[in-house]
Amino acid sequence: MTCSLPTLWRGLASAALGLALMPAQGTPAVGQTIKDCADCPTLVVLPSGSFLMGSVDTEKGRRSNEGPQHRVTIAYRLAVGQFELTRGEFARFVNASGYRDELSKGEACHVLDGRKWGKSSQHNWLNPGYAQTDEHPVSCVSWHDAQAYLAWLNRQVPGKGYRLLSEAEWEYAARAGQGGRHAWGDDDDVTAACAHANAMDQTGKEQIPDVTWAGVNCADGAAYPVAGPVFKPNAFGLYNMAGNVWEWVQDHGRVDYTGAPTDGSAWTEGGEPNFRGTRGGAWFSYPPALRSAYRGKSAPEFRGGGVGFRIARPL
């Protein structure tokens, strides 16, 4: 069998292109899930890319701390928790390390009592004020608790660099290539949210007494946090980036994005060092908090029945 020179060159070029699109040996492919140890959270490999962070002045539900909108480039590969850290994963850390120092400071958590939130010494990460299993996201954990977990995990699997996401990385991961209000589209009337996010809705209003604030215009079947893949993942394969529990990020609190870094790094100089960022909304959140650009913040020692975290590591 003979082969003409042009055909041969086309074959070689196609092979070269195929090799170029393949990840380097040992580097996981975009969209692949990885688990570095038996007790490690499952991570999803994200692509590098750029996006517009924040919101435009005309976005429905916008707050002033979401501007000015600016382009951020994530020029590196990052693996992000497929789910929020679970109670079972946090329990393994506590049981293995004997971690008590930060948890012993107050042993209290802000929980919902009727229509009001109040600090309760009877509640903690093992009892956040609602029923849960080891598969549910851990809540009633402070930013300091999250850092202690990450330090422990890095000792178990050295060299991986586990950490919280920066606020820019979090929004990039949450948007998953979607530039609108939500990762599932603009959804101005918030009627499609119940397929994608666990927030205050018709179910919550029916099952939780005295809820007076607005909910999304649908019923998701869950009044409190859910475990696992109940709702649809976003386009990056990440679950519960909107709703379920707020997620701590690494950055200091900020009144807006003036002077924000554009390379995806955490913004930890200046700002409001007595606060740390939280993102994503929670099971009790009103509709605007489900938007990808929505920003929260709390004191790093704060524990709430709807505040947890998600981990990441560079590749």
TrEMBL record:
Database matches in Gene3D superfamilies: paralog of FGE (formylglycine-generating enzyme) (3.90.1580.10)
Source species taxonomy: Bacteria, Pseudomonadati, Pseudomonadota, Betaproteobacteria, Burkholderiales
A Pfam family of this chain: FGE-sulfatase
Organism of derivation: Pelomonas parva
Domain Sulfatase-modifying factor enzyme-like per the UniProt entry, residue ranges: 40-313
Stretches assigned to coiled coil: none
Segment forming the signal sequence: 1-26
Name of the featured protein: Formylglycine-generating enzyme family protein
Recorded superkingdom: Bacteria
Keywords: Signal
